[in-house]
């Protein structure tokens, strides 16, 4: 979707319509120019500067040539580390994004703009990097934050879901009573690779009758076809790293 | 110091925060009354109070870096960092951070553990906060202070949601001030 915005006309922020899967910008981290509707505002900057939970709906002017620089900047702030954690893996390191205050702020803003006002009451975040991105989004949209954890970390009663690893299996846990049937949720993680972790999180939430509105990640590794494991749940990512 | 000692006496937000924390007896082992902050995270108003109180305290202190200890420090640190315009630095268990890291060992009740920080995290002349959900022995926070100081940062303060009463008054950790919102909640059988 493209919207031509005159630099001399301010417009009110509209929530971007749901993007089709994988429309995200396969060449984003090469900084090719991309135009996204409704993504020109600095509403999010005011949101965080004032600490307010409700975002103003006014937006700022676009840059002169109408490009949204946020995605390209986010992509370029992610560091790629070869052969970590083992040879052959090109590790997408978001810690450098967290060191770039503008890029981190923009990352959260892009998710908040997409999910506010849609009746989402649950933001689930997968341990551990999902804990970094999920809570700021939850706070901004007025939702609760639900940590999805490795075994034995959550005290009290939990439900548990097993999922496959390359070799063997692991388990993910969620607190009993954290969510209620009929709630609308998004699931956040830094990256989707094979999709196994997100699929386990979807199953945990759906077992309790929660509706998954979308899975949201900063980065996708599309060659690993993780979105195919997500069933009916849509996927939204900022950066696609082919 | 505790927030009540520092101008927040009678602030209703502190009671809301304390009430939102659930106590789980005998977790992870017998005798420990575990302060479960996940119920606080399920209460968007109370969670926001926590962030607001820390942000109001730190926003004019010229803080450029907020460090958080894996994993619950990852929940409270980033919202504070974002609101005050600081970068967020995760302090992690061994082997999780890619690239070059520095490492600090610290004592557990039995044995020891290590905490790592990326060598890219600290530039010169940084003023840093360390945020965690709870301070008990102070071992993890002390290790975190060491990591940041070794990298050349100045640790301004450590901030925690919950702290044992022994941290009242002008208690310092390795010479650094500690700011705590609430004491541990009491176990209420009725809520279990």
UniProtKB/TrEMBL annotation, chain A:
Residues 106-226 form the Phosphoribosyltransferase domain. GO terms for molecular function: adenine phosphoribosyltransferase activity. Its main location: cytoplasm. It is found in: Cytoplasm. Keywords: Cytoplasm, Glycosyltransferase, Purine salvage, Transferase. Homodimer. Belongs to the purine/pyrimidine phosphoribosyltransferase family. This is adenine phosphoribosyltransferase. It comes from Cardamine amara subsp. amara.
From TrEMBL, chain B:
GO terms for cellular component: cytoplasm. The keyword Transferase applies. One of its GO terms (biological process) is purine ribonucleoside salvage. Its EC number is 2.4.2.7. It holds the Pfam family Pribosyltran. Residues 46-171 form the Phosphoribosyltransferase domain. One of its GO terms (molecular function) is adenine phosphoribosyltransferase activity. Homodimer. Belongs to the purine/pyrimidine phosphoribosyltransferase family. This is adenine phosphoribosyltransferase. It comes from Cardamine amara subsp. amara.
């Amino acid at each position: 979707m493209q919207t031509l915005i005159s630099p001399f006309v301010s417009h009110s922020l509209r929530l971007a319509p749901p993007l089709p899967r994988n429309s995200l910008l396969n060449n984003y981290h090469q900084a090719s120019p991309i135009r996204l509707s409704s993504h020109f505002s600095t509403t999010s900057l005011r949101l965080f500067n004032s600490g307010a939970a409700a975002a103003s709906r006014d937006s700022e002017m676009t840059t002169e040539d109408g490009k949204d620089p946020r995605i390209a900047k986010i992509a370029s702030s992610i560091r790629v580390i070869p052969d970590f954690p083992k040879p052959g893996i090109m590790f997408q390191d978001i810690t450098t994004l967290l060191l770039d205050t503008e890029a981190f702020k923009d990352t959260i803003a892009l998710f908040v703009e997409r999910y506010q006002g849609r009746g989402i009451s649950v933001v689930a975040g997968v341990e551990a990097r999902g804990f970094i991105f999920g809570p700021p989004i939850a706070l901004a949209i007025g939702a609760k934050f639900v940590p999805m954890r490795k075994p034995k970390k959550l005290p009290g009663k939990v439900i548990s879901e097993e999922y496959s690893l390359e070799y063997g299996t692991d388990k993910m846990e969620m607190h009993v009573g954290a969510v209620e049937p009929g709630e609308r949720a998004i699931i956040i993680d830094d990256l989707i690779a094979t999709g196994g972790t997100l699929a386990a999180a979807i199953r945990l939430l759906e077992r309790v009758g929660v509706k998954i509105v979308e899975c949201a990640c900063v980065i996708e590794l599309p060659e690993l076809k993780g979105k195919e494991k997500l069933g009916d749940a849509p996927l939204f990512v900022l950066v696609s790293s082919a | 110091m505790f927030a009540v000692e520092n101008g927040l006496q009678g602030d209703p937000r502190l009671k809301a925060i304390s009430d939102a924390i659930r106590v789980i007896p005998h977790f992870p082992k017998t005798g420990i009354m575990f302060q479960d902050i996940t119920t606080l995270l399920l209460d968007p108003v109370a969670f926001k109070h926590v962030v607001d109180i820390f942000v109001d305290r730190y926003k004019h202190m010229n803080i450029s870096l907020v460090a958080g200890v894996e994993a619950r420090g990852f929940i409270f640190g980033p919202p504070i960092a974002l609101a005050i315009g600081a970068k967020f630095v995760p302090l992690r268990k061994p082997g999780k951070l890619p690239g070059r890291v520095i490492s600090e060992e610290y004592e557990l009740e039995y044995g020891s553990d290590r905490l790592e920080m990326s060598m890219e995290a600290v530039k010169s002349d940084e003023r840093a906060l360390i945020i965690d959900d709870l301070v008990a022995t102070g071992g993890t926070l002390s290790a975190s202070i060491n990591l940041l100081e070794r990298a050349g940062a100045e640790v301004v303060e450590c901030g925690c949601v919950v702290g044992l009463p022994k941290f009242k008054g002008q208690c310092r950790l390795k010479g650094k001030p500690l700011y705590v919102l609430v004491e541990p909640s009491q176990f209420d059988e009725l809520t279990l």
